[in-house]
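User: Could you check the structure of this?
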Amino acid sequence: MAKRNNRVKLDSSIELKDRLVAINRVTKVTKGGRTFTFAAIVVVGNENGIVGWGLGKANEVTAAIAKGVEAAKKNLIKVPVHKGTIPHEQYAKFGGSRVILIPASQGTGVKAGGAMRAVLESVGITDVLAKSKGSSNPHNLVKATIAALDEMRSPAIVAQNRGISVEQVFKG
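Assistant: Sure, the predicted C-alpha cells are below.
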C-alpha cells in the first residue's frame, strides 16, 4: 500500500466535531492497591471531508477524552467525498481488522457498525456500505477505516491522470 500524503494543517477556520468511539478502563496493580486509569479513542471531523483520530490516556474520563481530541487534531487527513459517498470501492487492514468500503446510491445511509460509523459520519459521508472482518477491536477498526479513506482518490485526480473528463470516469 502506497502511503499518500493527504495530511491537513489545522487552522482556526476548520470547525471540528468530536465523537467518542470507545473508553477503556485500565487497572494497574501496585503494592498499595489497584490504580485505575482510562484510555479514550476519539474521532474528530468537520463533516465535509476532513477527519482524524486520537488516543488519550488519563486518570479521569474527561481528561482522557480531552487528550484524545487534542491528539486527533494533530492527525487530520482530507478525504474526497463525491455526492455524499466515496468515489470508489476500497479495502484496508490494520492489525487483525479488515474493512471494505463500497459506494452506495443516494438515500442508502451509512451501513456500518460502531467504530466505522463514527469515522464515516465524521468525514461527512452520508451513503456508504461498509463491512468489517476479523478483529472488532475499536482501535484497529478506526485505524483501518482511516487507512482506507486515506487511500481514496478523488474523481478529479483520476480524470486528470487519464486525460478525460470527470463524467467519463463514472461512465467507464
